[in-house]
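Holo prediction. Input below; ligand is zinc ion.
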Amino acid sequence: MNRFILLIFVVIIGFSLLTEGWKKGRRHRKRKVTKFMHVSDVHFDLFYNQSISKDTSCRSTEGFKMADHEAPYGRIGCDSPEWLLESTLAAMKEKGKDAEFILLTGNLSAHDMTDDQGSPNVLKAIQTVSSKAHEVFHFFYPLCCFSSLDGKMVVLVPNAMYWNNNWQTYPLWDEIAERQLQWLAEQLALAKNKGKRVLIMSHIPPGGDPFNYNYFWIPKYAERYAILVAGKYHDVIAGQFYAHTHKDDFRLQILNTEDEKTSTKSFVLQTASVSPIYSNNPAFKVFTMRTDIQALVDYDQHYLDLEIATEFSNPVWKFDYTFSKRYPSKNKLINANRIDELSQKLISQTDAQYWNGYFMGTTANYFPSHYDRFGLYCIVRYVLEDDFHRCYDNFKVHN
Ligand SMILES: [Zn+2]
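Structure of the complex:
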């Protein structure tokens, strides 16, 4: 039950953070480009102790050991200290100074924070992150479901937790999951009728986990969601934004896998986490979107190299890469065809640029934890588990 409570709090954090740029944007409706940021999985830890080892998640719980070095900015293997939260917000303010809004796709609290009392610590962490974000960006309101963006775009925030596999113990679960899907279908129909384009954001993505190839969603919901976003409404979706794996990553949704060339498609962009607990550097992205055609054009990823910062006591948020430079293409938009091209080039026999970039990008330049090239290729490419296995079984080289 405790885990369930934690889960709900995570869900409510489908947020849109509005910056002062939003107001400015409204005054300049004619401009063709807008910017926004995507950040996720802050996992702020109220009990972070910079002197304690990662064996007990940097907390002074039973059996803790002192670490061999102090880690004031954060430690690989632990959730985020307050310093890292504040530093991330400051870096976002600087790197995304002309951004008009922020997609914050969940997990504000550290792991394992529920206790016999329930979730007061989870709430406290959410409150801290919210108020600190508010201090930096001034506009901040939780967005559970719907928001109009400049009249021509809509941000939909379905609660994907109900389509997820792990927590299905609640009797009304199926009913709510069903209603969520119904709601999404209605909103997409509405957007299509009014000629609007849609950004979808939520926490746990459709598709597979790159760590173990487990698929997150209940298959029937994964399939029906794919039919909506990659089928009838593929041209309505400007982008889907998810997180949860703590990795910078991509997912393609192909409706008809028998005939992929002519099939309609959609795509998901996942962002690396702020928390370095699963062996990645903290990172976030600044997107550019064309407002005349409501399409994603590009993004920059920024990151903090935690080991360099710690060693030299000099934390500096650095530019990592620009999507269009790392994955050069004739296609000048970030859309389903572009992600299709990207996924195919991950296993190119003549050009290593895409794979090299992708592999280091996933962890924002921390050393990736495992190497299984064709597994990762199939995970990016196939959002349904059966399709993944068909893809994976086709390759003889597995790791
Ligand atoms: Zn997380």
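Residues 18 and 101 are 5 Å apart (CA to CA). That is the main takeaway for now.
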